[in-house]
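Researcher: Please predict.
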Amino acid sequence: MAEDRQNKELNTFGFTGKLRTGLVTAIIAIQFAAIVTLWRYTVSQSKDKEAIQKELYEKMIERLDSKVNEKMTKEVTPRMERLDTVTSRLDTATTQLQEKINVRQK
């Protein structure tokens, strides 16, 4: 029954025989073109998303690096300076002690 209804509709608009086949082929071609277009759009959107995500990750890593550098500069540098001061004083004391030992041995 559905076939008869479709045939009546197509016959009403003058689509018969080869014209009907051409119409169906054209509709399938349009659908295929739409599918390909949507697939290409999806792929391009995916690539754009990956590029933006990569850029955001790089910015995040740069920020973390700068934060780590700031923290290292704030916390480690003073300690290294104190350690440098202590080692230089120790070196001076060792040198003076060595000189006193050498003087007593003579």
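Model: The chain has a mean pLDDT of 87.
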